[in-house]
Amino acid sequence: MNLEGRTVEDLLAEVTRLKEHDLPVRGGQVTAYVYDTGRPEVHEAAARAYAEMLEVNCLDPTAFPSVVEMERQVVGAVADLLGGGHGIFTSGGTESIMLAVKAARDAAAKAAPKLVLPVTAHPAFHKAAHYLGVEVVAVPVDLETYRVRASDVARAIDEDTILVVASAPSYPQGVIDPIEEVAAAAAAAGVPCHVDACVGGWLLPWLREAGATVPPFDLSVPGVTSLSCDLHKFGYAPKGASVVLFADPAMRRRAYFASAAWPGYTIINATVQSSRSAGPLGGAWATLAALGREGYLELGRNALEATLRLREGIAAIPGLRVLGEPESSLVAFAGDGIDVFVLADEARARGWFLQPQLSYAGIPANLHITVTGVTLAGVEALLKVIAESAGAARRRGPVVLPDGLVELVAGMDLAALDDATFAELAASVGVDLRPGKGQPEMAVVNTILDALPAAAREAVLVRFLSTLYG
C-alpha cells in the first residue's frame, strides 16, 4: 500500500479499480450476500446517516447519547414486531448468536455445557460454541421437509444442555422449524430456547401480512427465550446491523461484559466489540424510517410473488428440483443428472451468482437463492439463465476428478504446507489464487470439498483463505 499522500480523486479511482472483479451489489443478479430494495433514495438515506454517525463511538453511551436513543428506537421496532423483549444492537447475526449463547452459558453455569441444535442451524452457533467452550449436539432433520423434529430435540437434551436452537427459517432450504413444539420440549426440560430468525425476523411478518402462511415463531411463543434478527438482511440496512432479543431482562444482562480489574477507564460492553462505529446503527435507523411499514410490506409482497414464480419455474426445468417447501423467500434446488456446481459456474459466466451448498447429513449438494424485494423485476431473466446454465451443465457433464485426488487431499497434513505450496496445489486443479485474477471457476473445488468429510473441508477452507490473503 502506498502511504504517501494521495488526492481524493486518485483514491476513489483506485477503489473503482480494486472493485473490478467484485460481484454487483445492486440489481438482483447476486442471489446471496447482498439485499437490494431497488430504491436508490433509501440507500442514499442510509449512506448519509451512516456517514453522519461514522465517527461516533458506541463504547461509551454516556459520552454519545445519540447512540442510546437510536438503539432504543431500532431495538424497540424489532421488539414490537417480534413479540416484545429486551434487546441489544449488534454487528450481525453471528454476534447476536454469540451473545445469546454466552447469556445461556453464564446463566446455566454448567461444567460441561451443551448446545442442542438441528444440523441445518447456522454455523454461527458452532463458532459461538467454539469460542465459548460449549459442546454442540447436532440433531438430524427430516430429509423430506428439512425441518427438525421436536421429539429428536427432546431426546438430545440432557442435564448439561444450556440452550436449544430452532430456525425461522433455516438458511439452507428456507423452511421454518416447528418452533412451538421445539420450544415446548425445551421448556419441559427447563432449558432456554433460542430462535434464529436472523434471516426471517424482519421478513416473515411482512410475508404473513402479504398473504403467506407463516407459523408462530417469535418471542410470543411460550418457551422461546431469545431471538436473533438481522436488519442488514431483509431490513435492507447497510452491513453491520442485527438485534438479539431476550424475553427476560436478566438474560440480557448475562450477555453484557464488565471489567473493573484495571486502573483505566470503565469497561462495560453490551456486545463482543468494545470500540465500534455507530455508522451501522445510523444506517439501520435511517433505513427503517425511510422504508416504513408500507415500504416493507410492498417489498414483502414482491419477494413472495418472486419466490412463487421462481419455485414454479425451477420445477419446470428438466433435471432440477426444489428442496422442501420453502416458507420464506429462500429457495434451494438440486440436480438430477445435472452437476449443480457446474451449473453455478455457467450462471456466473452469464453474469449471475448462485450460491453453492455442499451435501451434508443426507441433504444433497444444491444451489441457494435468496429472493429479495428487487428480484421480482428480474425473475424471468433469472429463470432463463438457470435453464440455459442447466442445459450447458448437462452438455458438459459432471466434474470428473483424477483418481486418488480426494484421498490425497484428505490424507495431507495441510498444516505442514506453506501458502505458496498450497497455491500450487490449487493451481493444479485450475484455481488461480494470485491477486488480480478475478473469480476462478469453482466447480472442481466444490466437487473436491463435497467429497471430503466436514473436518477435512474445514482444513482446506482455512488454507484457501490464508493463501488468498497471502
TrEMBL record:
InterPro entries: GrpII_AminoAcid_Decarb, PyrdxlP-dep_de-COase, PyrdxlP-dep_Trfase, PyrdxlP-dep_Trfase_major, PyrdxlP-dep_Trfase_small
The keyword Transferase belongs to this UniProt entry's keyword annotation: yes
Cofactor(s) annotated in UniProt: pyridoxal 5'-phosphate
Pfam families with a match to the protein in the record: Pyridoxal_deC
Keyword Transferase in record: yes
GO molecular function (one): pyridoxal phosphate binding
Keywords, comma-separated and alphabetical: Aminotransferase, Lyase, Pyridoxal phosphate, Transferase
Positions bearing N6-(pyridoxal phosphate)lysine: K233
GO biological process: carboxylic acid metabolic process
Gene3D superfamilies: Aspartate Aminotransferase, domain 1, Type I PLP-dependent aspartate aminotransferase-like (Major domain)
Highest taxon of the lineage: Bacteria
Family listed: Belongs to the group II decarboxylase family. Sphingosine-1-phosphate lyase subfamily.
Protein name: Aminotransferase class V-fold PLP-dependent enzyme
Organism: Nonomuraea phyllanthi
Lineage: Bacteria, Bacillati, Actinomycetota, Actinomycetes, Streptosporangiales
